Each structure stands twice: as C-alpha cells, then as structure tokens.
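[Solved] Which block belongs to which protein?

Original post:
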Amino acid sequence: MFHPWSLCGEIDQKVMNLHPSLAVAVQAAQAKLDEHTRHIVQWHFSPETGCPFWLDWAGKSGWNPAQEVKGFAELLRFPHFQDEWLRDLPNEVWVPKKYQGRPFNIFETGGTTGMPKQRIGWDDYKIDYSDFSDTLSDAEFPRNQYWLMVGPTGPRRLRLAIEHLANVRGCSCYFVDLDPRWVKKLLTTKQHDQAKAYMEHVVDQAVTILQHRKVSALFTTPKLLEALGEKINLYEAGIRGVFCGGTTMAPQYVRYLMEEVLEDRIGFRPTYGNTLMGLAASRPLRPEDNYSITYHAPQPRAVLRIVDPNKTESLKNYGEWGRVELTTLTQEFFMPRFLERDEAIRREPCDLYPWDGVGEVRPFGAMEKTIVEGVY
C-alpha cells in the first residue's frame, strides 16, 4: 500500500519540525491534491468524459484507474508519460469526450529540431493565468495600464496566456516576437554573430515601443532583460514590474538583474513554466535565500517532484539536486510523471505555498556537459 506522502511532499523529520500552522497547511494541501487527483483520474478514465488515448491505455493496462486511484500516491502505478506521444499521435486522441465538437487551440513546445510536442487545450491557460494574477501586487503590476511581452509567440501557449493575464488585470499588451528555435540553431552551429544580430533586432523593437508607448509591466527572458537594461533605463521608461523566465537564473545572476538592471526599484517575479505545466510562481525572496529562487507548481492542477534520476519513484531529500518530474491534472489534460529536461533542488513548503518547491532550475546534466540554452 502506498503511503500518501511517498510520492509528493512526503513528511520527513525536517517538515515535521515546522511550525504548527504550516504543518496543518501542508496536510490540508495534500488532502486537496488527493481529492483533485481522484476527480481528474475518474474524469479521464470514464467513457462518458475521457479521451481516446487514456481509455485505450486503461483497456490494455490490466487495472482500472478510475476505481483504484484513491490519491496522488497511486500515480506511481503509471509509467512515465512519453513526449513521443505528443509528437507522433494525432491531436484527436487527447480530446475528452465532454469537449468533442469544440475547436481547440494547438500549442507547441520548443521543438528545436524535428516535430515539436503539441498540447491541445481550451480554457486551461485562462484558468492557470487567472489564478496567477491573484498572486500579483497592484503596485508592481498596476491595473488598467499596458504591458509588453518580448518573447516567443507563434504556436506557443505563452503568447495567449500573457495577453489573458494582462486582460484579467484590465490591461492590454504589446508584443515583440522571438523565434527561440532559430536562435538555438544559430548557437548550435556556432553562428554567434548572427545570433547576436538577431537578439539586437528583437531588443531594438522592444526599446522602440518603450520609448513611444506607456508600458508598466514587462515579460521577457533573463538575457533579453539584461540586453534591454543596457539600452534603456527601465524604471524611467515606466516599468514597475517584470516577469522573467525561460532560461537558467543562478543566484549571482538574479542578484545582478535585481540590483544592476532593475536597480532594486522594479518588482521582479521569476517564473518557471512551459506548455505542459502552465506556470510555477516563485516565492518572495528573503535575505537568507541569498538570491536563490524557489518555484512552486500551481497545485493541485500541476505537481512538481524532484526525483532520483536513477530511481525515479524516489524523491530526493530537501536540499538535494534531482531531476524535475511533472504531473499535470486538469480536465483537459492528464499527464502523469513526465520527466522534464531540467534538474533542480528540492525545497521545503512555505506559508504561501504549503507544498514542495523546486530551486535553481537548470538543464538536466548541466554540470556534466555543455548545454545550449539560447535566449529562451
């Protein structure tokens, strides 16, 4: 029998010693996750509501997830979700019966080479980013103003999601497009001059907007944020809050961005997300964090675990590095135990997010080999 803490946020001695109110919140979050897991699994594995892929999978698996999954821990009975399923199979196999006949959005992941992974969806991105809006400060991200996104648009979920987030807060959004596939291809083939010229082309477009339009919030990548800061004073340009994500941000780089680029005058909200998960928010930095960022998944709709790469059913201890494993649990999309191409430090729950966090996210194997990240 699985112990409910064997898969996510298990209570080790360190957590047991947390102050009572946080311990209660951790247990309540786990109970909510278990209830949500039961509901989502029953949804995807019931003929009245489920999608062809999971109904077919269940017919061949020899067990009945709709009846046998009682909580999140039982998801260990599933194999790791394979990204090839999202590349090779037609999108129709992922349409839950309750959504049949309703046109869907098609979102793509990075897809540097070959066929990219595709996720279909209807309302998930709106729900995810509406929830995220509740975590934002009106002082840093004022309502009823204008935003600027400098990053990948095109087939990516992020473009619609950022615009929806702005709209939820009464704002409209300008966009400067970025093609990360092209940048990564240039860097991989050592065409560094071309990559630099393309980045300058993107940054120049953003500077033009900031010089001619009132903008109070910015979404971009760390490297593009740094490049923007070299060309324009962001605070004097009107920026009061910055979302930043897409590539690794080591503690010393976070400190540089906050102190030198944003001058400790602009709100800084690092984010970790992708097409398959949605958006993991970062907990507010404290002095004792030494600029080390910790992200928390939008539980119960998505769950991040830090697992032993060689024994993925096992969690790493708090403070240890491991591979990031993602489970997505929505009515539109069920994705159990997907191994991300990232590694991170397992971090303890906190008052704001009473479940496990992931710290200092970087590409998996970054210490053993050279990895090309590009600008996103």
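(Second protein starts here: sequence line, then its structure tokens.)
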Amino acid sequence: MVVTNFEGAVAVITGGASGIGFATAKALRGKGTHVVLADINSQGLQRAEEQLRQQQPATASAGGILTMVTDVTNEEQVQELMRQASTTFGRIDLVVTSAGIGAGGPIDSFSVSQMQTLMNINFMGTYICTHAALPYMRQQGSGYFVFLSSVAGKLGVPFLSGYCASKWAVRGFASALRAEWYNTGLGITTVYPDWVDTPMVQKEGEVARIMGVQVLLTADQVASEIVQAIADGRPDLTLAPTRDTSLALQLYKEDPGKAEQLMGASFHERIALQYPQTDRARM
C-alpha cells in the first residue's frame, strides 16, 4: 500500500544517525511522520535526535522521535526495535533500510571476513529488518519498505565485487518480494543511487580515487527523491546524474557482456595511468 499521507505515519529508519538515513528521517519528520531512528552508533544517534529537534521543535504538526541503538545483524535487537516502534506509536507504516557499509579492493586481497561483513550488514540487515517488521504490517493490513541498494546493484564494478554482490542481493530480494506480495497491501521501493556525499563514501578514499569517483548527489537530494518515490509507489528509484553511470546502466540493459568488457577496459586504462607496471601486476 502506497503511503500518501505522511502526517501521523510511523517510519523505522536504520542507519538513521547519518547520511541518507538521517536525511530521510529529517524529510519525513518535516511532513509530520513519527520517526524511529536505529543505528549502531549511540553518540551519532544522540546527535541526530538533537539536530532533528533543533530543526523542528516539538509541535502539533511535528512527528515524534524515538532512537534505539541497534545492530541490524542482530535478530533479537531488530525484533526489539520493531516492538518498541509499535508500542510507542501504535503501528509501523514504513521501514527504510539504509544501514550499510562499503569496502573495496582487488578480490585477491579481499578477505572472507570482509565479504561476510558486507553481506551481513548490507543484505542480511535488510532481510532481518523486513522479517521483523512484517508481522506488524500483516496485522494492520498495510506497510511499505524502502531498500537502499546502489547503482552497484545494477552494475559490475571492478574493485567493488563484495559491495556489488551485497547490493545485487538486495535488488533480487526486493524483486522477489514484490511478486510475492502482489495485491497484499505491502510494497517496496528499491533505491539505486550513484555516489552520494555520505560518511561511508568519504571513507573509501583510495578506492574512490582509483575509480575516478564523481560525487554529485547529496543525502538530502536522495532523501527528497525517496519521499516522492514512496508517495508514488515507485518500485525502482535510480539516481544516476553522471553521464558515465547513465550510459553504463543503459548498456547493461542492452548487452551485459559488452558492458562488462567496456567497464573492465576503462578500469584498466585508469589503473595504467595512475600506477607503474610493478604495482599493476597485483591488481
């Protein structure tokens, strides 16, 4: 069921202490939505709540705020998050799964533990939140999810094999659920943004430099698009302002094999310009 009236609605937002999660909470609360911010960063959560209250003091039209320190890979903590959200505000209308991490590098040196951590947070965190919220939505007969994937969930990006795998998993999960939930009152928007100016992207300095990353999106821009996509019930929200990304996405639709070849050639040309032959041998 599409959420068209945000006033009085209840949204649970993971990764709510910063980045797209916080920006989405800010945008929704501005429309009168009660927001439940979940994050593993307790200090960040406290700052986020303070900022929200400063930007929009408690009034009749402002939504309520609840914060909970939550590890999205911990099923018990996520179940308690949903229970507290329902107990405090009476229902759960919207769940935004924006908790996520990024990590990159050549597959040769990308460890099993790094890959497992990516999958646990980016994909299993999405699954666990969905599974925990679903009983409340089933009981009320409606509910909506926003899954944060990435353009890396539609492309094969060198040096981001683990990240791509986790975001393609989110994409496939959402697609299967939309079919499973047909005509049930439940819906999903999957969000595929290009590089966004967030703490996660800022940490990927070396990998981002090698890849020639262009950051043209802000978290607030993405949040604004998310709110509109929820109201429209859009299954796919792809935000790709850079010409290269837009062309790559189109080519992947038309000819995935050729797209992989061109992305690989472009990547290795960039490596050749930045690193001597001795270093390239390890990439």
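Accepted answer:
You had them paired correctly. Confirming on the second one: The mean pLDDT is 89.
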